[in-house]
Amino acid sequence: MCGIVGWVDFQRDLSGSRATVQAMTDTMCCRGPDAEGLWLGRRAAIGHRRLAVVDLAGSTQPMTVETDGRTAVVLTFCGELYNFVELRHELEGYGHHFRTRGDTEVVLRAYLQWGADMVTRFNGMFALGVWDERNQELLLVRDRMGVKPLYYYPTPGGVLFGSEPKAILANPLASARVAADGMCEVLDMVKTPEHAVFSGMAEVRPGHLVRVRHTGVTRHRYWTLAAQPHADDPLSTVRHVRDLLDDTVARQLVADVPVGTLLSGGLDSSAVTALAAGTLLRGGAGPVRSFAVDFVGADEHFAPDAVRGDADSPFARELARHVAADHTEVRLDSEQLTDPAVRERVLAATDLPPAFWGDMWPSLYLLFRAVRDRCTVALSGEAADELFGGYRWFHNPRAVGASTFPWLTSGSARYFGGLSLLDRGLIEKLDIPAYRAMRYSEALAEVPVLPGEPAAERRMREVSYLNLTRFVQTLLDRKDRMSMAVGLEVRVPFCDHRLVSYVFNVPFPMKTLDGRPKGLLRAAMDDLLPRSVLDRVKTPYPATQDPGYEIALRAELTRVLADRDAPVLPLLDRDRVRRLLDRPLHGPSRPYDRGGLEMALWLNDWIIRYDVALDF
């Protein structure tokens, strides 16, 4: 895993722009702590920071190919190809010779052999930039599910690009300006594909490639979710899902560094951990390393709420014992979660206010920091809920039938709300309901159609599409930014495009084989997991219930209010803020009661750190 940056300009000579490209590359240090490289040409300048995972001594980047003693192609690549061994053998059959053992050179040679069509052969998570010196063209490519981020910023003479916005903002040609639509993206849980919040900046859409020539920028889709008839019976479907999971987990365990799993004790992470344990055992590689996170006192003082019926730790321990894992528990307290240094690193990694999910951002950062002490790669259960229909809104008729994103309906919306302390005039000016309605309409128009599909099944296809193209992106972004902030590579087997394409077309009643959410996945894992885990109800990532966490947030907001120069003040309803600060805090602190606090504080820090100019 790595950080990539670049600058292409057809109107100026970039060969003397080392200092600027170095500054862009330096912003990616956390993504690539092991090595760095720069390549400068007349029209292109490329940077790279490396996290060594495969072929530790080789595969340095940017990687080049020369023709007649001159550079022909330059590659900067972030990610992993899980089928690079097969592709390497195929390319050798075409006469290509390799000097390294990793997947980066496979990508480079694949481009030489197939051009942009190479991407249709890739199985993996990746973001890459290829500068073709021969025809003066840049190719930007992102993986099918958008596991790895990639941003770009058109300029009068070309384009800037990078793994994260901060890389682009390090170039003087870019600015941190945010218009009304960008602020709507910040404040609402819609996650519009391609929208990057900062004006003028875009995100390469998952499953797409972007070409940059002297004539301009063009976009092309190479993969999307497609509607296809599902012909397999339930038993064959269960077997095929299991076969795909066996294969993708085995592929994603390949590395030249220590590998572990993230284990919550829920169905998804337990499935990945159990499959990884079996693969490692058969290969004689020893026990799987698993890691769980929870909060100090959670075992004794956990209080069930509307979405968390029980604590994670007992289930994680049981699964770890069941598969004989080398298990580590990371226990956090409110002092760690509110540590200014931790929160500063979280914001520096996200480039945007990480308000949704509140304390889950610093807790994930701290978990990953602990994991990085023992592993460089970790496998995660992310995306299983979106794929197999695990969230409550898949099974709530009112949410399914609503004319908006199902997670923003009654019963779920409060978990993604951060508007409670904002000025009413601001909210009216932005017209967030109209923005949400527009984005929802756009999303629905994309959903593939299966002729003759019953209305009820058609609607569930729409709900699945919304989750797999919008909601999961926020989770993948969160996992990428927090893991890369500590130089940890997180892999997500449930995002394997073969599995996603297959399960997307499984009729929803078959996904609930036993009448419960994710019944199909439960059936596929029936022989590997203990009954308690197989039967466990969906429980989200843990959130602290410690009142001390909210007390610390309130104290910080009090300090912000006292600072006349605090940039967030014009955006707040001060009467609402004071009423919140005066309200007694009794019992456990709930994450859905802290949304306004989190948003106000993160907005203030974000505007200061990035010198954001609000254009509305």
Automatic annotation (TrEMBL):
Coiled coil: none annotated. The keyword Acyltransferase does not apply. It is an enzyme of class 6 (ligase). GO terms for biological process: asparagine biosynthetic process. The active site is at residue 2. This is asparagine synthase (glutamine-hydrolyzing). Its EC number is 6.3.5.4. InterPro entries: Asn_synth_AEB (IPR006426), Asn_synthase (IPR001962), ASN_synthetase/amidase (IPR051786), AsnB_N (IPR033738), GATase_2_dom (IPR017932), Ntn_hydrolases_N (IPR029055), Rossmann-like_a/b/a_fold (IPR014729). Pathway: Amino-acid biosynthesis; L-asparagine biosynthesis; L-asparagine from L-aspartate (L-Gln route): step 1/1. Residues 2-215 form the Glutamine amidotransferase type-2 domain.
